Amino acid sequence: MTMNDSTRHSLAQVGLPNDFGAAAPLLGHDDDGLAPAQLAELARLYAMLEVAFLAAAADGEINDAEADNLGATLGGWLGTELSEDVVEHVIARFINAHAAEGRDARLAAIAAELGPADRRTAYALACLVVLCDLELHEHELAVLGVIATGLAVSQDEAQATFEQIQDHIETVVANARGA
Description:
Elements: H1 5-12, H2 36-56, H3 64-78, H4 84-101, H5 103-113, H6 116-131, H7 138-150, H8 155-178
Helix pairs in contact: 1-3, 2-3, 2-4, 2-5, 2-6, 2-7, 3-4, 6-7, 6-8
């Protein structure tokens, strides 16, 4: 089943805090005269979104379809419209960092940037990415384990989060098929 925008939006918010997209207007601005608090909030948001990117790149790379799907999903997660330029900027930032440093170094940097609650949110984003195409592959499950470990999310909590999101997605998809 391919997802329409309504289904994608219904899936986007599961497991995410209500204020998740508060820093979305800052995306794409980076250091452009932002106050220190704004820079910190932007760094926090980039770190959480980068975990989603790492899940999308579970097989070690990200193809155009995966990048497009991730870009289309960003707005739903953030609860706002994002320009194509902003989406391209965000994805390019992650591709460049991944290519330069690798997944493990990026996970370590992300874990250092985020507190425990934000690491759990980032892990939920990774689960959403893995589950959003309604197909589950072994390499995706393996990368979720690596992400959980890298973010210091216990295996029990990681499994519970994954199952909660999977159940929600199955319910949304079943309702969309019945509509």
